[in-house]
Amino acid sequence: MYMAFFSTMQEMAQVKFEMLPKEYLQLMGVEDISQMGNYVTFFGMIFNILIIIMSIYAVTFSMNLILKEEKNKTIEYLYALSVTRKEIYFSKVLVALCAVFFVVLSVGIAGIIFGFASGSDTFSMVDMSAVIKITGTVPFFFAALGLFLSSLSSKYVSSGLGAGIVMLTYMLGYLGKLLEGKADFLKYFSPFELLSPTNALALSGETYGAFGVIAALTVILLIFASIAYKKRDFSL
């Protein structure tokens, strides 16, 4: 947000950006320094990077809700209570989704406040809302994925695996964009690319379709995680 307050820094940033390889800029979600002059696209660039961090948090946090329960033997105390596995599972789903929601909401509110303070004519509440709502759904998908993976087994699954999957899907989207015309199909394996801030602002039919598919996959993962958690044998 430093450049948003001190516009004189843009010329210096222009020089620095011109020295960087185009591939590196694409990796960070930056196409042109002119993005810095528009608050919404500038926020989208920053939000795109933060979404990776939020997704890693979402998948590791949701996985640890189940994995640490078995590791720390706290599952024994839950079994001593008059609650079913279904109730235990859905309480964890609620905790995971609420945690992700408040993280995304906090970042979104901070971006809106900075927009009102320094965005001037380039700030648009409608566009900001579109970016936050559409791109902000990515961490929820990874939270569901984390719950699904951790509900299968603790022997071959760890929170590190979840973080690795997040980075892998991001890199697939990056490669699909970098190898445009040669490996475009790779971007369809990356929710980061399908629901990127750029696509959120364009709101094409493809973006709506991708949003629907990812939302459906999130629900499906939660359902299958519920089934797996109910049948899972915990090491007590």
TrEMBL record:
<feature type="transmembrane region" description="Helical">
    <location>
        <begin position="208"/>
        <end position="229"/>
    </location>
</feature>
<feature type="transmembrane region" description="Helical">
    <location>
        <begin position="42"/>
        <end position="67"/>
    </location>
</feature>
<feature type="transmembrane region" description="Helical">
    <location>
        <begin position="88"/>
        <end position="118"/>
    </location>
</feature>
<feature type="transmembrane region" description="Helical">
    <location>
        <begin position="156"/>
        <end position="176"/>
    </location>
</feature>
<dbReference type="GO" id="GO:0140359">
    <property type="term" value="F:ABC-type transporter activity"/>
</dbReference>
<dbReference type="Pfam" id="PF12679">
    <property type="entry name" value="ABC2_membrane_2"/>
</dbReference>
<keyword id="KW-1133">Transmembrane helix</keyword>
<keyword id="KW-0472">Membrane</keyword>
<dbReference type="GO" id="GO:0005886">
    <property type="term" value="C:plasma membrane"/>
</dbReference>
<feature type="transmembrane region" description="Helical">
    <location>
        <begin position="130"/>
        <end position="149"/>
    </location>
</feature>
<keyword id="KW-0812">Transmembrane</keyword>
<protein>
    <submittedName>
        <fullName>ABC transporter permease</fullName>
    </submittedName>
</protein>
